[in-house]
TrEMBL record:
Transmembrane annotation, as ranges: 12-32, 44-65, 72-95, 115-134
Species assigned in the record: Pseudomonas arsenicoxydans
Keyword Transmembrane helix included in the entry's annotation: yes
Protein name: Uncharacterized protein
Highest taxon listed in the record's lineage: Bacteria
Keywords assigned by UniProt, alphabetized: Membrane, Transmembrane, Transmembrane helix
Amino acid sequence: MQASIKKPSYTGAIIFIAIFGVGAWFALQGIVDTFFLGAEIIGITKYALMYYVFFMVISAGILIMSRAARKVGIFMALYPFGLAAIFIAGFSSIVSNPSPNPNPLSDQLAAMQVFGVHAFIWSIPAFVTGYYIVKAFRESREVRCK
């Protein structure tokens, strides 16, 4: 009789991460209001911050569940830089207190700063979480093939 090989299933982990992420989404609504002051000045909405924090929680869940993702866990360090960028842009004098005289250079710098923060907020969570998902998926395929 052939012995069966028991392969680990990651379905439970994926469901746990999804439920944990949705629960975190609702729990974070109050926390995001605390950080909204700097974001209001540069036009980042509450839902953009919730998107950012939601994917940060999902990334943390993947790091907990996947050994391969933990090996490249350094990318998680990009998240605090995004929050710092919000506060720096929100409280900088270029954006929050424009000069009384029309100055095209300061207006262009303010626009570049706002664009950079928006690009960081919308792209970094997608890239980091996507990369961790790919690493975890490849790890699960390697385990299944053994």
